[in-house]
Amino acid sequence: MSYFVNEKGYYGDFGGAYIPEMLYPNVEELRQNYLKIIGDEDFQKEFHQLLKDYVGRPSPLYLAKRLSKKYNANIFLKREDLNHTGAHKINNTVGQILLAERLGKKRIIAETGAGQHGVATATVCALRGLECVVYMGEVDIKRQAPNVARMKMLGATVVPATSGSKTLKDATNEAMRDWINNPIDTHFIIGSVVGPHPYPDMVGIFQSIISEETKKQLIEQTGSDQPDYILACVGGGSNAMGMFYHFLDDEQVKLIAVEAAGRGVSSGFSAATTTLGKEGVLHGSRSILMQTHDGQVVEPHSVSAGLDYPGIGPQHAHLFKTGRGQYVSITDDESLQAGLLLTQMEGIIPAIESAHALAYLEKMTFTGNENVVVCLSGRGDKDMDTYMKYFNL
Amino acid sequence: MNRLKQLFEEKKNILSIYYTAGYPNLGDTMAIAEQLEQSGADLLEIGFPYSDPVADGPVIQASSKQALDNGMDLKLLFEQLKDLRKTVTIPVLLMGYVNPMLQFGVENFCKACAEVGVDGCIVPDLPMVEYEELYAEIFAKYGLSNIFLVTPQTSPERIQKIDGISNAFIYLLSSSATTGQNLQVSDQTEAYFARIAALKLKNPSIIGFGISSKETFNKACKYAHGAIVGSAFVKSLDGDNVRGSVKEFMKKFKG
What we know:
Helix content of chain A is 43%, strand content 18%.
């Protein structure tokens, strides 16, 4: 069983490039070049240098002692929250900006929900002096004002997406329309393992640094590179894919992907895609998505803007369908409580996205010897408003 | 004889009109089709709406959203088109995105098209490879044509390939753009149209995207067998007087 992409751009039944002809030349240019560029020695050197000196990698693998005691297992946190700009998103934008430069692109566009990917994109554009346009839903612009200000300060133009539900899904549509209208000089930096092939594979490769480092760090700290469990949250699924990547073929390592149940999977306000979704096509790939009986995409809900997406990447759909990954969900309330718990037991305020992964520890039982890695994908600074309101701080 | 084939054999300067099913009012689909034929349209493209129409500009996006809010879906559309061939004789295509079609079932979709007398489909986000491998046989079984798009950035090799698997006509996009922008025939566009002509394709072609007036229509007809009007027509529809607004719009092209 292969968990990686095949030569046709598919992961089992999922993937492909379901795009209108207007996008074909752009996506095809990328498809023909991405592996060659990424494999190039100069590229690798520059990429790893930036990850080290600019992003601050390797990110620590931290044994959370008090949390470990509470859950009766060795809980390791992969500290992506300590990266520059505060989340794993920057791993991918550093990779894609170097790739865009090598393709001769002069203009960068991106979609963003909470603004983390938008900030990470605006950051690397400032770093390399490239024009940056970020599409963001009008509703998200209102609820994520600090990130909008950060992007503007970094020199990006933030364009409100006013169609549909005015959130991440619509921002993605608008970015795709921009790309259709600017086919020659523009590169679209997609922020997750979604979109037409080769995006899911490319973003997965850039994020795979997370599991590459984790393996080495586990050997140093535990003597084995094989933990018992790995947990990560899934919206589109990029931090989870980066965290799972080098463990996919280690079948004894149990992979747990945590989706956002929102107010509960049956509440009508949820983003638990594998529970509520069906197979279909969204944003250029065949995957699992939340939709009506006649194939209209349904609006998801999560307290965490980064998990508020009606689909998952095609590789995740494949891991779900083959049973390689266990896909579970956590409610808004459970995630916020887990965020508070980590803050008070370890002195780390997590992003609410990452708190979903932490919350699942409550539902597991351990015997005291298991090694468990949780991807702490981002820090909670951006979520202070939500935490303050919820806990009356 | 195949209605599409006959049209291209018998007519030049073919005027094709796009509109969204279920817009402005849920029940307008058939009235618009009938009035368009009576007012001189040669070919109809009826759009079935989708929540995330990435290839479309603001006008068609808004019409799709309104149609969905009105309650349009494929099941209802086929019911509305049940008696299509009692009153409409010109060729009719259905145009929409792949996901609603997949959920309806591709075979069910093709069967329903054949039953009501739809002649073909345009599905912009259904890739050529997937069409060939998974669906071409089903389309053929029900006698449906699948129409592919070509843009100024499409390579000659790919155009030849598209020509090879097309059996009605090729939809030439005047520029790489979302729908609803004005046709600008620059030197570059002319060179592109000339390049297509030089390929001596077996299929005729129609130009779409940016045709909004008799002037732009005539310009497009210099380079192809006809042209498609979409956004400009959708924008002109008046929900309180649908047939009247269709008549009024068509006067601009046929007057």
